[in-house]
Amino acid sequence: xxxxxxxxxxxxxxxxxxxxxxxxxxxxxxxxxxxxxxxxxxxxxxxxxxxxxxxxxxxxxxxxxxxxx
Length: 69
Hints:
- The chain is mainly alpha-helical.
- The chain has a two-stranded antiparallel ribbon.
- It has helices spanning 26-51, 54-62, and strands at residues 15-16, 23-24.
- The chain starts with 14 loop residues before the first strand and ends in a 7-residue tail after the last helix.
């Protein structure tokens, strides 16, 4: 199986705490964005591992569905 990687870029210059309107400093913003990026990566890896097995991919490549058609 080939390894694939998807990327999305963005730039965050500032953030505000929604409830209070208080500005978030750059270090906190970086930490929060990093946490969310790691969380998304972990969830994606788990989802793909559970749903896209080598057997599933072989079945798709063969062009045959679960009913053998």
